[in-house]
TrEMBL record:
PROSITE patterns: GST_CTER, GST_NTER. The lineage of its organism: Eukaryota, Fungi, Dikarya, Ascomycota, Pezizomycotina. This is GST N-terminal domain-containing protein. SUPFAM superfamilies: GST C-terminal domain-like, Thioredoxin-like. Pfam families: DUF7962, GST_N_3. Residues 22-101 form the GST N-terminal domain. Residues 125-254 form the GST C-terminal domain.
């Protein structure tokens, strides 16, 4: 693959032929750093998808009409399966499209994913209070509700030194990883670990004035900046990758066209004696343990394991009885609470 050319679709993906691969729809907004992580991966792999652009703040009507109340972006629909959390999304794509996959060392790439998730709050803390969007009262109110902390100008400015110190440590860690002269995080070949490492750092570098009055520069961290530049050069932009946009109502129709009704009896994919006490078919609420807790997702359990929970969600306006159309929403167990609606108020993890 040449660095600036659009790649050929890997694994025989082609145009995501319906018979082989359900259509893929990425719900995101353009300046979401977590969305960059997923779009980078898709564009680098040459996996064809459409994007459904969302507003950066609530409400998001395109998701509401699907019955999705969970608020964090991005979400990825593959057929009528909707995946939550970027770590889960990328590993599901690796599973579905194994030929030419990037996850050459799953254990280490997951370690880097967790490290970057810890870095992101520091990156977000570097958002300058002078940015135009920070003068939008709706945005400030939305982010305060989402994060559980104040986004007032004086509070953002007061927290900035701590955020810069945290992001500097992240640059130091990557500089150390690359100190032996390697071009890529795991050695000589680009892998999923490179995406996992780079996304929060690239986001803060590209944000106007985010690193103002800091020593986080290409001179101080030459290997880290060069690594990010190298990675970005390998990733086609959305236009070169052939990404097209889709409206919310059309996306809903596409997703529900893949619906296959599951049997209403029998325990399908639910482990016995799960610590949550939840059983197959039970209505639950799934809530992140950190941010976005005011917007849990309801649904009926269809799969439950130590790694993942899948709930059936009936879109707004759809018939709820037998023969209904629905989607399956996938959450990782790590980082989320699963609570039975009948036992609301109990601490069930």
């Amino acid at each position: 693959m040449t660095e600036n050319a659009a790649p050929v679709a890997v694994g025989g993906v082609g145009g995501n032929d319906r018979e082989e691969h359900p259509k893929i729809i990425l719900y995101h907004y353009p300046f979401s750093p977590y969305a960059h992580k997923v779009s980078w991966y898709l564009n680098l792999r040459g996996i064809k998808y459409q994007e459904c652009i969302q507003p950066p703040i609530l409400p998001r009507q395109d998701l509401a009409i699907l019955g999705i109340t969970y608020r964090r972006i991005p979400l990825l629909a593959i057929g009528n399966d909707v995946y939550i959390d970027t770590t889960l999304i990328l590993r599901e794509l690796e599973r579905r499209f194994p030929q030419g996959g990037l996850d050459t060392d799953p254990r280490r790439s997951l370690e880097y994913a967790e490290r970057s998730n810890g870095v992101f709050p520091f990156a977000a803390g570097c958002i300058p209070s002078s940015l135009p969007i920070m003068r939008d009262e709706r945005f400030v109110k939305d982010r305060s509700q989402f994060s559980g902390r104040s986004w007032k100008k004086e509070d953002i400015d007061a927290a900035r030194p701590k955020a810069l110190a945290g992001i500097r440590k992240a640059f130091e860690a990557v500089e150390k990883d690359l100190s032996d002269g390697r071009e890529w995080i795991l050695g000589n070949e680009l892998s999923l670990a490179d995406i996992e490492v780079a996304w929060p750092l690239e986001w803060v570098i590209s944000m106007p004035s985010a690193l103002l009055n800091s020593d986080i520069t290409p001179t101080t961290f030459p290997k880290t900046f060069a690594h990010i530049t190298r990675l970005k050069a390998r990733i086609p932009d959305s236009k070169a990758a052939g990404v097209t946009r889709i409206k919310g109502e059309e996306a809903k129709a596409v997703i529900l066209s893949y619906h296959t009704q599951q049997e209403e009896t029998g325990n399908v994919g639910v482990t016995d004696k799960d610590p949550s006490g939840v059983t197959w078919g039970e209505e639950v609420e799934i809530t992140p343990v950190d941010t976005g807790r005011a917007n849990p997702q309801r649904g009926r359990v269809r799969e439950l394991s130590g790694e993942k929970v899948v709930v059936e969600v009936v879109p707004t306006g759809e018939y709820h009885g037998k023969g209904r159309k629905a989607l399956r929403v996938h959450f990782p167990r790590r980082g989320y609470e699963v609570v039975s609606r009948s036992a609301k108020g109990d601490a069930k993890l």
